[in-house]
Amino acid sequence: MKNGYVLIILAALGFAALPIFIKYGYNVGLTTEVMLFLRFLIASILLSFIMLVSGRKGFKLNKSSLPKLVLHGLVFFGSSYCYVLAIKHMSATVTNILLYTYPLMVVVMATMIFKEKISLVKTITLLISFLGCLMVIDIINTSAHQISMLGVLYGIGSAVFYAVYNINGQYLSKTLEPVTISTYTSVVCLLATMVVYPPVNLFAGHSFQAMWIVGLGTAIFSTIIPLFCYQKGVSLLGASQASILSNIEPVIATVLAFLILGEKLSSLQLSGAFLIILGGLLLKLDKGKQPSTLSS
């Protein structure tokens, strides 16, 4: 049981470090396309190797699974693309907090698209989380905290895509192994990156040391390791406990951004972050019906 808690905390640490690596990349002159390409290239190679050496038959899929995995990968690419661009325009701290509004997006989708009834707890949570968002971006005084409204839009877009990714992921995991889902997701994201940013003279003018740090950091430390730690933690603790414990991720991200990047939040923004985390926790404690998959 204790090992399960340690694994979930390690997973949260890895995921929380992602915006730190990306912000560092921007600070040393790396471009959006370079960071996306390196992350998904390294992750695709390593995950494919893991599948091969483990002897699993994850590459063999039925016809109905492949389109769902492709859609799943495209949705994750959309989230990652918006996330990286949001960090380009805002602090890593604010971007990560906005991403954590994805449980709120799940509720909105379940209500508007799937016509599910919204409970009192979810109604209260929507209000709390929305107020928290306004406080984090400090809508009244954005210039004082260098909040870019374009960055806010990218941050919210990342949360919307991530919400869809989580909804579909719940259902894909019932028939496919996590390593299979992760491998195909990474490969699709790599191909999507190459379509959006054709890799012609991609690495010209960039520091190879910085590319190795960001590429290996985002692919291994912030993608593969936390993914496997979280899945193993879920198997030891159960999905509910693991999901609730993972609420420490934005807290860790805020601390890391302060210690490594020197980023600070005002008292109002910290209060808003607390409301968003509280809203996510309330949603996970609410025993509501899970929304249907968008790929079905």
Summarize the structure in words.
The protein has 296 residues and is mainly α. It has one domain. Helix content is 75%, strand content 0%. The protein is built from twelve helices and no strands. The chain has helices spanning 2-27, 32-53, 65-89, 92-99, 102-112, 120-136, 149-172, 178-196, 208-237, 239-245, 249-261, 267-285. Helix 1 packs across helix 4, helix 3 crosses helix 8 and helix 9 crosses helix 10 (239-245). The longest helix has 30 residues, at 208-237. It holds the Pfam family EamA. Keywords: Membrane, Transmembrane, Transmembrane helix. Belongs to the EamA transporter family.
**What separation lies between the terminal Cα atoms?**
35 Å
The largest β sheet comes out as: none
DSSP summary, beta strand count: 0
General form? globular
Structural class comes to mainly alpha
Count of the separate structural domains:
1
- What is the count of DSSP helices, taking H or I runs of 4+ residues? 12
Secondary-structure element series: HHHHHHHHHHHH
From the alpha-carbon coordinates, what is the Rg to the nearest angstrom?
Answer: 19 Å
Give the rounded overall mean pLDDT: 82
Low-confidence stretches: none
Family: Belongs to the EamA transporter family.
Protein name: Putative membrane protein
Keywords: Membrane, Transmembrane, Transmembrane helix
Task: Describe what is shown at a glance.
The chain is built from 12 helices and no strands. The protein is mainly α and 296 residues long. It is globular and about 45 Å long.
